């Protein structure tokens, strides 16, 4: 399994945060300018929505900075879980955006309002959709490489801005046929964003509480364990604790009771070292003598 080092994860996290911050600031300037030139209050509001994305990017940058700090006496497992806390903060902001989408959409439907923008607004809005979706795809790519939940949350925040611009364009081109299209699409996207919030929250909270080891990870650990030992080793009782920048894994291995304590200890240390190098996992291994295991199974 290909792993990304802690240093690379930090660099990628910083890059995602700073690219996001820069792009959002540039888009804010162009959207605000287009709103002033076209006299569109809605586009000016959308510009401020884009600027609010910069806030989540700052949260991301700060969380990556804190997460990269090394473990110390006060926090022996490091600061990796700040990543999950940051993801929850960003999800809360995304939930507020989703709520505002839903609220504005209901108001538009109740007041029979449709979108009305000029050519400049159309060009800037179309460019915003392409740019923000590209930024979302970039952030999702970084999230997959690093496993960083807060970057994934930030990606969805980028996508929320792209979706808000889609609403604008849909309202422009279809308002002559369906006056309600702007409000209806707004409600649909609001629901989609609330689902994204749920998904981000669920993943972050699951990692904070601790999660079951995946079947894939268990098989990989068993393979490394047996390869290192030079014989098939029975392994069980897997528990994973996610700390953002690294995972702590505890599990049991079954060895012959005739093996002396020193040899069993050295083998466990060697397996832990191999797991660290091959899978990027910090493991703690408990040794069970086979005789005790057979007795427990009876």
> How much helix is in the residues?
over 70%
Query: Roughly what is the average pLDDT, rounded to an integer?
Result: 79
Described by the principal axes of the CA atoms, the overall outline is elongated
> Which second-level CATH architecture of the largest domain applies?
Up-down Bundle
Distance from N terminus to C terminus (CA atoms, Å) equals 37 Å
Q: Total number of β-strand segments? A: 3
The neighbouring-strand order within the major sheet is 1-2-3
Proportion of β residues?
A: 5-15%
Going by helix content, strand content and strand pairing, the class is mainly alpha
Q: By CATH's scheme, which homologous superfamily of the largest domain applies?
A: Cation efflux protein transmembrane domain
- Structural domains: how many: 2
What is the CATH topology descriptor of the largest domain? Alpha-lytic protease prodomain-like
| Poorly predicted residue ranges | none
Largest sheet: 3 strands, mixed
Helix/strand order? HHHHHHHEEHEH
Number of helices: 9
Whole-angstrom Rg: 25 Å
In CATH's first tier, which class of the largest domain applies? Mainly Alpha
Description:
- Strands 1-2-3 form a three-stranded mixed beta sheet.
- The longest helix is centred in the N-terminal third of the chain and has 33 residues, at 6-38.
- The chain starts with 5 loop residues before the first helix and ends with a helix.
- It has 298 residues and is mainly alpha-helical.
- It has nine helices and three strands.
- It folds into two domains: 6-209, Alpha-lytic protease prodomain-like, CATH 1.20.1510; 215-297, Cation efflux protein, cytoplasmic domain (Alpha-Beta Plaits, 2-Layer Sandwich).
- The radius of gyration is 25 Å and the shape is elongated.
């Amino acid at each position: 399994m290909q792993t990304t080092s802690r240093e690379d994860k930090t660099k990628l996290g910083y890059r995602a945060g700073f690219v996001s911050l820069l792009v959002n600031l540039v888009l804010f300037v162009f959207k605000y300018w287009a709103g002033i030139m076209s006299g569109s209050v809605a586009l000016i509001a959308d510009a401020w929505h884009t600027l609010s994305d910069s806030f989540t990017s700052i949260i991301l940058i700060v969380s990556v900075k804190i997460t990269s700090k090394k473990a110390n006496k006060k926090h022996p497992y490091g600061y990796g879980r700040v990543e999950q806390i940051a993801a929850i903060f960003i999800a809360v902001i995304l939930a507020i955006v989703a709520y505002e989408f839903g609220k504005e959409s209901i108001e538009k439907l109740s007041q029979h309002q449709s979108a009305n923008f000029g050519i400049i607004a159309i060009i800037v809005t179309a460019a915003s959709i392409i740019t923000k979706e590209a930024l979302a795809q970039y952030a999702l790519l970084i999230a997959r490489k690093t496993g960083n939940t807060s970057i994934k949350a930030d990606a969805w925040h980028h996508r929320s801005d792209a979706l808000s611009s889609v609403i604008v364009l849909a309202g422009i081109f279809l308002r002559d046929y369906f006056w309600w299209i702007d409000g209806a699409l707004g409600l649909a996207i609001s629901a989609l964003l609330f689902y994204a919030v749920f998904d981000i929250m669920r993943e972050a909270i699951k990692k904070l509480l601790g999660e079951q080891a995946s079947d894939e990870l268990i098989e990989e650990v068993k393979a490394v364990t047996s390869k290192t030992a030079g014989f098939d080793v029975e392994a069980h009782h897997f528990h994973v604790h996610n700390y953002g920048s690294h995972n702590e894994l505890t599990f049991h291995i079954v060895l012959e009771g005739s093996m002396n304590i020193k040899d069993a200890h050295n083998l466990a240390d060697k397996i832990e070292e191999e797991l660290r190098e091959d899978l990027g996992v910090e493991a703690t291994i408990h040794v069970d003598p086979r005789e005790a295991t057979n007795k427990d199974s009876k």
